[in-house]
Structure formats: structure tokens, C-alpha cells
From TrEMBL:
It comes from Nitrosomonas eutropha. Transmembrane segments: none annotated. This is L,D-transpeptidase catalytic domain. Keywords: Cell shape, Cell wall biogenesis/degradation, Peptidoglycan synthesis, Transferase. InterPro entries: LD_TPept_cat_dom, Transpep_catalytic_dom. The keyword Transferase applies. GO terms for molecular function: carboxypeptidase activity; transferase activity. PANTHER family: L,D-TRANSPEPTIDASE YAFK-RELATED, LD-TRANSPEPTIDASE. Residues 24-181 form the L,D-TPase catalytic domain. The keyword Cell division does not apply. One of its GO terms (biological process) is cell wall organization. Pathway: Cell wall biogenesis; peptidoglycan biosynthesis. Pfam families: YkuD (PF03734). Belongs to the YkuD family.
Length: 181
């Protein structure tokens, strides 16, 4: 019985990375090409040389423009076996993205309403709008490591190596906040 109490104490006092809490979040710096696992304002793990969308990053991303969206998101789905090794999907487009796109005239009120209705009814962002979708953090799969290290090559996602995805995996869960700046 005493070893059970000791084990419980140790788990509570020294949580494992897989027991990531809500104060752990992901910061993606598109200008520095860096992904950091953060706890409050302290970096716990840093990956340099990430790849982003082949045409950079923007607050005004649209479907097919190959730009990584800037903003604050959450991990909303995970695909463990993907052509990119592992895929952590973010809730893009979220309400903030839809509100900005409506105010800038990039989408109609009807499309904005469809996005908001989908989010409110299912809790998930629609992935097939004119703002695009299927954005996330993923590995390179069987892709070329040399291309990854020299070019921004994604269609708007954030890519890290497969080994880095394995290191990131214990820190990510559904609902993890992802800030892309």
C-alpha cells in the first residue's frame, strides 16, 4: 500500500510529458522557423528548422494559396497514420478567422454563417470552405529530408521531421493551444 501512495505522489509531483496539462501550449514562430512547446512563458522543448507554407504565413489565408495561417488555434483532431507520418489538425478556420475574413470581404455572410453553424453544432471547424482547411502540424513521412531542411514546402501546414513528431507527441492532446505568429 505504501508503494502505491509513493507512486501516486511521484506522478503528481513530477508529471510525465504525456500528462500534459492545459498550461502546456505550442508556439510556432514562422519568421524564426521554430516550434516550441511552452509552459506559461518557458520553452520546454524547441524544434528549429520547421517548414511552413511555400508562400509564407498570413492572417488572410485562403484555400489554395499555400500560406500558413497566423493566429491562435487548438488541436482538434489527430491522425496517427498519415502520409505525413502523423498529423495534428488545428481548428482552422475558427471563429476569429471567419470574423476577420468577413470583415475584409474575403467571404460572404452566408459562408461565415456556415462556418459558425458548423463550429457551434459539431465543435469542429469545417475543412472545405473558401478559407481552406486541413491545416495542422505534421511530419515529413517518406519525404526528402534535404528538401525539408532547405525549403518551405507545405500547402499551409507546419512540418517537422518524423523524429521531432515523435518527441512532440507526448505533449499534444486534443484542445492543446497552438499559437502561430
Amino acid at each position: 500500500m505504501r508503494w502505491v501512495q509513493t507512486g501516486l505522489f511521484l506522478l503528481l509531483a513530477f508529471p510525465l510529458p504525456g500528462r500534459a496539462t492545459q498550461d502546456v501550449w505550442i508556439l510556432i514562430d514562422t519568421s524564426e522557423h521554430r516550434l516550441s512547446v511552452m509552459r506559461k512563458d518557458k520553452a520546454l522543448l524547441i524544434f528549429d528548422n520547421i517548414a511552413i507554407g511555400r508562400y509564407g504565413a498570413s492572417h488572410s489565408r485562403m484555400q489554395g494559396d499555400n500560406q500558413t495561417p497566423l493566429g491562435s488555434f487548438q488541436i482538434s483532431w489527430v491522425k496517427q497514420h498519415n502520409r505525413f507520418y502523423r498529423f495534428y489538425g488545428i481548428n482552422y478556420p475558427n471563429r476569429e478567422v471567419a470574423d476577420l475574413a468577413l470583415s475584409e470581404g474575403r467571404i460572404s455572410r452566408q459562408i461565415w454563417g456556415n462556418i459558425i453553424n458548423a463550429i457551434e453544432s459539431t465543435g469542429l471547424s469545417p475543412q472545405d470552405t473558401s478559407l481552406g482547411g486541413y491545416i495542422g502540424i505534421h511530419g515529413i513521412g517518406k519525404g526528402d529530408q534535404a528538401v525539408h531542411s532547405r525549403f518551405n514546402w507545405t500547402n499551409g501546414c507546419v512540418a517537422i521531421t518524423n523524429a521531432q513528431i515523435d518527441q512532440l507527441n507526448p505533449w499534444i492532446k486534443l484542445g492543446t493551444r497552438v499559437v502561430i505568429q
